[in-house]
Amino acid sequence: MAERPQIISTSVTAKLSREEQRKVRDLEAARKAGTAAPAQDESGNAINPHIPHFISRAPWYADIGVPSLAHQRVEEKEGTKLDQWYDRGQRAGPASKKFRKGACENCGAMSHKQKDCVERPRKKGAKYTGKDIMADELVQHFDGDYDAKRDRWNGYDPAAYKAVVDEYEAMEEARRKVREEEIDKAAQEGEGQVVQEKKKVVDDEFGSSDEDEEDEEKYADAAEQVGQKLDEKNRITVRNLRIREDTAKYLINLNPESAYYDPKTRAMRDAPEEGNKDAKDMKFAGDNFTRYSGESTNMAKLQTFAWQSNMLGHNVHIEANPTAAMMLHKEFTAKKGVMKDTNKVSILEKYGGEEHLERLPQELLQGQTEEYVEYSRTGNVIKGRERAKAMSKYEEDIHPNNHKSVWGSFYDRANAAWGYTCCHSLTYNSYCTGEAGKEANTSTSVAALLETAGDKRRIDEEAEADRRRAAAAEAEKAASAKAEKGKGKEKERERGQAGIAKRKEGNEDLELDKDRLKRAVAEERKRKEMGDEEAWAQTKKAKTDVSQEELEAYRLTKQAFDDPMANYKDTEE
């Protein structure tokens, strides 16, 4: 099959004759053989004749009319130069004289809208007043590459730091002049020792070699740390490849039959120490732990899932179809988690106990502070944080009702009661009356009433006399009652003739009207024969006061079936 001739321009396809096609093929063969000069591009560079046509021939949209490989090269972009940056605060030109359509309604500039305006919001914008129109800002665009956009020093002017240097030098010069004036003043007063001390201070602050040495020692001590070796004489820091304090893993056991060390990967999988020792007691337990880190555990779980699925009859194979195996394992894990959560929720709803599963936040369990605390060997605090006082479960420092002290802060010995110190009130939750309350409580207390011994003696004598009079009256009353006991029948007969009945109420005798008592007994019996609704309606209409006759009628008509003495009658006269 003959090769197609190289077409210089693909924009206009011209049909070549057989003779022209033969010449093109002969020219290509000669260029490949090296007998003819190779083709050159627009820059004068030779084009390799062995490049295939589908690479050397430019597509129709990138054809420039001459042989070239420019369409295969990355287009070079001209980046932003170092001296190009935003001109902050620059204006595009003078301000306009009148408001233009599409400008900012607040300041009148065309470079931004009203919502992006940084000027002070005016009461009446430039759109309505046409006054004080601001000039347009100079909007610049720099198409920087990836690094230029993220360069934090892009646009920095080193000359701006000269102001900081000048300020520091001015402060040093002023400090030097103040020290010199103090030295001159001390020298004039004749204090030689003070002059020497001041001179020493000045030397230490301005150019003293001792200060430089102290600073160097300070910084050298700070730089001396693990992983570095410091030469204090030459002040040279040497960085090491590893920490020399730890023994190399291949030097722990020099037996050639021990664990193999791979010098290329610097790995030793097995433990170099012989014997059945615990991994915690070994200096180095091997690098096998790295084989169980990362995604290796997930791979082992996936393989186990595939084996178990095959045992159950499912066609899951991790090597033949890993994607399907991973998707099935992911779906199985999700369903397993949902089922586990569902079982947990159902158990908690049935048996309870969810409050015991809650735990403190991780920030509180593993919290770290910068408080310096020293502990003894027994765990007691020696220095630092003091022991916190136990908080009371009751409310503290709360004084209701205008009180300034708490209940129970005052004890009244005369009344044997507790109260408030601020007002000496003995009533809980009372309103505080201050000093006036103290005076009132003092004047009305028992101690004030019995202030003098004479009053107390007089009161005691009067109480004793009253007691004796009461005893004599009681004895006289008992004697009269005994004398009148024989005249009971005669008085009873007289009361019957007068229509008066007698009933004993405690230690007193009550006189009742017989006619009223008969009517009350009849009404009570009639009421008991009524139904519940009729009795309730009559009770609402009746009066609320109960007379002695009605009370006696209720007692006479009351039936006490459980009382064995209900039908007992006293026949003794």
Walk me through the structure.
The protein is mainly alpha-helical and 573 residues long. Helix content is 39%, strand content 5%. Among the domains are: 18-72, no CATH class; 84-155, no CATH class; 294-354; 410-449, no CATH class; 453-481. The protein has helices at 18-33, 53-56, 126-129, 146-149, 162-188, 192-205, 209-223, 296-311, 322-351, 362-365, 434-443, 446-449, 453-483, 488-498, 514-529, 532-541, 548-557; strands at 228-231, 236-239, 374-375, 381-383, 410-412, 417-419, 500-505, 508-513. It has a two-stranded antiparallel sheet. Helix 5 packs antiparallel against helix 6 (192-205) and helix 15 (514-529) crosses helix 17. Associated with the spliceosome. Residues 145-409 form the Pre-mRNA-splicing factor SLU7 domain. It comes from Dioszegia hungarica. Involved in pre-mRNA splicing.
Concise overview:
This is Pre-mRNA-splicing factor SLU7. This protein has 573 residues and is mainly alpha-helical. The protein is built from 17 helices and 8 strands.
Secondary structure: elements and pairs:
Elements: H1 18-33, H2 53-56, H3 126-129, H4 146-149, H5 162-188, H6 192-205, H7 209-223, E1 228-231, E2 236-239, H8 296-311, H9 322-351, H10 362-365, E3 374-375, E4 381-383, E5 410-412, E6 417-419, H11 434-443, H12 446-449, H13 453-483, H14 488-498, E7 500-505, E8 508-513, H15 514-529, H16 532-541, H17 548-557
Helix pairs in contact: 5-6, 15-17
